[in-house]
Amino acid sequence: MTVGVGVIGTGNIGTAHARNLAFAVSGSQVSAVFDTNATRMAEVAGELGAIAVSSVDELINHRDVDAVVIASPDHLHAEQAIACLAAGKPTMCEKPLAPSIEEAITVLDAEVALGRRLITMGFMRRFDPGYVNLKEQLGSGTVGEALIVHCVHRNRSIGPEQTSATLLTNSVVHEMDINRWLLDEEYVSAFVMNGRPSPRAAPGVQDPQLVFLHTASGVIVEVESFGNAQFGYEVACEVVASEGTLRLGDGSFITSSSRGRHGKAIPGQWLGRFGEAYRLEMQAWIDSIRAVGGAGITTGPSVWDGYAATAAANACIAAQASGQQVPITLIAKPALY
Ligand code: ISE
User: Fold this and answer.
1) Can you tell me the distance from the alpha carbon of 112 to that of 301, in angstroms, rounded to the nearest whole number?
2) Which of 124, 85, 101 shows the shortest CA–CA distance to 307?
3) How far apart are CA 115 and CA 51, in angstroms?
4) Tens of pLDDT along 277-322?
5) Which pTM value belongs to this model?
6) Among residues 207, 153, 209, 194, which one has the least CA distance to residue 177?
7) Directed axis angle between helix 38-48 and helix 12-19, to 10°?
8) If I label 220, which of 39, 85, 146, 337 is the partner at 20 to 30 A Cα–Cα?
9) How many distinct helices (H) and strands (E) make up the chain?
């Protein structure tokens, strides 16, 4: 069975997902696309041999659409995810599940009421070979127990729509997810340190910022989030453990020596760094749909993971505003997850 996918949003990430589904993933094709930018939508539809539809509703309910990718602006994810649940279609929802906890819970409630998992969260770092290796090595116990995790998340620049809060819900949300996955436990509190803003930061935007999370067992997760780092894209993670350390540098850095120079090329943005993770994420999603379809997805990041990451990001927003440490209290985990 070839899974016909409808892609909502043909911006950077939606187009990357659509190209992967059309050319790099086996078992899928892109049957329909939708975007409010009609020119861009037509270009992507033409390139992939998909139809361009006139609304999100038409896409979700189209008979050639077996499954949906949500790659629209963050504030639309929750309502579109709920519409996909109502149509009974397996869905890959880009992060975040929603910017606010309340909206995230509406999706959680809708999926629990349906009684089967249809939504997979697009936390692609879980498929990055570097992070997978880091988790395996930590799990093997050779460095002992994790005590502190230092993370670096630098973007070359951020758009004018980004605020101190969206840097947390849209960007640092990756660390919210990947560290609870790495450590296999939930967070219990958040604290955010504001410092001297970069002269490149837009007025009123706290950039860079230092985020501190405590997990249930007391591990400290520290994240440097820097949206306007200028030099390129960089993600790094170092686990300090009781018997040693594990360090994940930027997996896409290749050191080369040529023409009298020695050095590394730095990716300009996240697609360069996480290209393989995005492809592997899509292949795993399509494989799971082909295996179980609408009967319910059982692998990959879930709506619960999306909710937990949003809850941590929202605690950070409150911590940033108050300058205080803010507790993170999750609702009871439904049996579905
Ligand atoms: C973007 O949406 C991503 O997913 C990138 O990984 C992240 O670095 C960036 O800050 C986000 O805006």
Assistant:
1) 15
2) 101
3) 32
4) 999 999 999 999 999 866 777 789 999 999 999 999 999 999 999 9
5) 0.96
6) 153
7) 10
8) 337
9) 10, 15
